[in-house]
């Protein structure tokens, strides 16, 4: 019996081939796909940007980008030999004529069967121009597949996202567009559907009868770093909530898809995102909190960061309470928070279950409290989950105590787990868009976020309002205390 090869065949064209994303994420991910055999002899990469590099210099850059990996030099050289550099400005039509010739040459040389993947790793204002030139200059092929990968941000609000989508749709069908949200490539985020729909003991309780509240925390220790210009025009709400947090929320709350595939998952995510309770302006002020970090002796404040406006009112922190207007989630708050310069770098989801209606052990001792059942999904840096339960203390008599069921991927599993971009590039080679954001999800997310942003734009904040190393402003805690709740993870 002949074994099916796992090799995938494609020409990648990376717009922004000299940029930070390409060097830090894309080249190492492509290399990992190569050393695992998903890419072999039949692939080539054209890197393109304005600076005048030679192929030789490009190969050195590729090798440098792999320096952190423990790899054999000969293999790196063999891998790098598949890379070609073309210097040009994407706004210049001549660029595409040269690109077309090079693409055809490489297609013949490597036997690429007309399969093309265009990665737009550039500022979003170029996406529309690139897409329209790819069509007008006939760079798309009639014989193989044509797929385009779009980086974030996908617009700044619903209107700009729609404009961008219309531009892309003039060249590509929805099933050719892969909108990247790298959180959807993370191991434990992909684990959410498995945990929910693979375990009746969870899914049976996964509703407002048993769940009290859900908390999603995406906490970052670093500040804006080298992306200050982008960040000061975006802020935490647009940078993290519109995409990553609402995507995670949709996986946690969607109904069971008819099939676990692109169409099934997309249909259910869209439904739940379209059911997010839309706040009025007044409700925004009570349900969403923004923050900006100040300075300490050792940490630069947001407004003092390089390339940040000294009077910037941009949010480097956001916390909010999200409600879903459907039967399953009626009355269940989803508390979310994310920010820069917080206490630590981690991502976790806490699902807090309701208490039993009575505590039959309390008559034995007032100390016999029942632990709150909390399912914590540890996304990063640890990957796994904890379930807090009530148990009996060992020994004579009867006393209760909280016990923790803990599962964590071990070091080998973590090492074997592909990095998010590697996983998502593999999906794209397979033509599987299950872990990508479809247009109607983007549209619903922006419509929800736009209301909050509009209120914020109309009201001046008092910034800075949180200290680096904390978990954000006091108001983020008050959001829960007001509801007689608290964050499961506290500083
Ligand atoms: N870096 C990251 O960690 C992340 C980035 N992203 C997104 O990825 C995209 C790229 O980000 P990043 O790599 O950081 O950005 P960089 O600024 O590092 O790279 C931009 C790239 O675009 C090229 N470029 C700029 N103008 C032109 C032009 N007119 N014609 C041709 N090439 C041009 C630059 O090269 P040259 O100057 O030589 O022309 C460079 O290769 C953005 O959409 C960003 O939001 C998303 C998540 C994380
Ligand atoms: O998309 C983004 O994500 C990163 C955080 O990603 P992580 O995988 O390190 O958790 C964030 O720093 C950046 O501002 C944002 O654009």
UniProtKB/TrEMBL annotation:
Residues 194-487 form the Glucose-6-phosphate dehydrogenase C-terminal domain. SUPFAM superfamilies: Glyceraldehyde-3-phosphate dehydrogenase-like, C-terminal domain, NAD(P)-binding Rossmann-fold domains. It holds the Pfam family G6PD_N. One of its GO terms (cellular component) is cytosol. Residues 14-191 form the Glucose-6-phosphate dehydrogenase NAD-binding domain. NADP(+) binds at residues 16-23, 50, 89-90, 152. GO terms for biological process: glucose metabolic process; pentose-phosphate shunt, oxidative branch. Its EC number is 1.1.1.49. Substrate binds at residues 182, 186, 220, 239, 340, 345. One of its GO terms (molecular function) is glucose-6-phosphate dehydrogenase activity. The keyword Oxidoreductase applies. The active site is at residue 244. Coiled coil: none annotated. It catalyses: D-glucose 6-phosphate + NADP(+) = 6-phospho-D-glucono-1,5-lactone + NADPH + H(+). Pathway: Carbohydrate degradation; pentose phosphate pathway; D-ribulose 5-phosphate from D-glucose 6-phosphate (oxidative stage): step 1/3. Transmembrane segments: none annotated. Belongs to the glucose-6-phosphate dehydrogenase family. HAMAP family: G6PD (MF_00966). Catalyzes the oxidation of glucose 6-phosphate to 6-phosphogluconolactone. This is Glucose-6-phosphate 1-dehydrogenase. The lineage of its organism: Bacteria, Bacillati, Bacillota, Bacilli, Lactobacillales.
